[in-house]
Amino acid sequence: MSQAMILPAAAAGTFTIGGDLTVNRMGYGAMRITGPGIWGPPADKRAALATLQRAIELGVNLIDTADSYGPAVSEELIAEALFPYPADLVIATKGGWERPGPNQWTHNASPKHLANALEGSLRRLKLERIDIYQLHAPDNVISFEASVDALARLRDQGKIRHVALSNVTREHVERARKIVPIVSVQNRYSFADRESDFIVDYCEENGIAFLPWAPIGQGRTAHGAIARVAQQLHATILQVALAWILKRSEVILPIPGTSSVEHLVENVASALLQLPQTAFEMLSAVHPEYLSLRG
Fold first, then answer.
1. Angle formed at CA 114 by CA 254 and CA 160, multiple of 5 degrees
2. Distance CA 148, CA 134 (A)
3. How crowded is the C-beta side of 210, counted as CA atoms within 13 Å?
4. Most buried of the four, 167, 280, 283, 293, by CB within 10 Å?
5. C-alpha distances out from residue 172 to 23, 144, 150, 190, 199, Å
6. pLDDT on residue 3
7. What is the pLDDT of residue 7?
8. How many CB atoms lie within 10 A of CB 269?
9. Which of the four pLDDT bands, split at 50, 70 and 90, describes residue 29?
10. Domain count along the chain
11. Which domain holds residue 184?
């Protein structure tokens, strides 16, 4: 068995985040290992732990999570499944949301809340420093600069290695970079949802990693064109969608999430898929507004 088969997450190459964190370009998002509504424990804890462990076996060394997933549950499961962590594993987490109940999310990016959220993440993940700590979303009530400045101070204290952003505009990124280096941006982006196209371009121009959430369109299938390519390549539609996003830019680090080992293997295998340039260009020419999406 070849090394590429053993570690398919490495097949799409690597990217170095912040100048010192080199990761395989196929990552894993740990939101879906929680309960319904991203609330409480998973229905099958053994499956959640097995999925995390299998991700590492497949060469995944970038795991994305947040204190609000559960809340707390995702981070706790990561530590239970993987601690002590492999030396090359990068865990990115986030703060800035509060969770009053299932499927409910409320902003709180105040400096006090972010400091408390970070301490909770450090404790649950059993870390002394978070490699990548992301502002989960700007808070309309709190000054964006105040939120970013709070993370910059926590970085100066040695509790965060790198500061990052999520759910932001290009203007947010530019404003944040005046306060502290920003190593990654996490926005919704997929073959079927390219609203952040220009932010991907900005990240590419500035050497910033782009972590697309919902990189396979939140489980939706799209457009006959992608289905035809999947048939030609003997792949699934979701694998072609991930292969397209990997080819879109070398700064893109997809983090598809699942609580199923079977789906994890399917997702990670997309890094092995060689999407021909002609197919990539044809799919890129399909404007998202013409995509036929079905849940």
1. 60
2. 10
3. 32
4. 283
5. 25, 8, 15, 21, 11
6. 43
7. 83
8. 20
9. very high
10. 1
11. 3-294
Q: DSSP string of 94-136?
A: EE-EE-SSTT--EE---HHHHHHHHHHHHHHHT-SSEEEEEE-
The SS3 assignment for 192 reads coil
Alpha-carbon distance 232 to 191, whole Å? 18
In this prediction, residue 288 has a pLDDT band, given cuts at 50, 70 and 90, of: low
Question: Residue 94's CB: how many other CB atoms inside 10 A?
Answer: 26
The band of 292, judged by pLDDT with boundaries at 50, 70 and 90, is very low
Tell whether the torsion through CA atoms of 170, 176, 177 and 181 is positive or negative: negative
Higher pLDDT, 293 or 103: 103
- Return the pLDDT at 147: 98
Residue 2 scores a pLDDT above 50: no
Residues in the chain: 295
Q: How far apart are the C-alpha atoms of 90 and 228, rounded to whole Å?
A: 36
Query: Which CB contacts under 8 angstroms, 24+ apart, belong to 285-288?
Result: 286/223, 286/225, 286/226, 288/192, 288/193, 288/194
Instruction: Give the domain CATH number at 188.
Output: 3.20.20.100
| Cα radius of gyration (the chain) | 18
DSSP-assigned letters across all residues of 72-83? THHHHHHHHHHP
Residues known to be catalytic: 69
pTM of the shown model: 0.94
- Looking at residue 16, its amino acid is T
Q: Which two tokens stand for residue 14?
A: 């690597």
* Whole-number pLDDT of residue 223: 64
Single-letter residue type at 172: H
Using left for φ > 0, alpha for ψ between -120 and 50, and beta otherwise, residue 96 falls in: left
Q: Is the pLDDT of residue 80 over 60?
A: yes
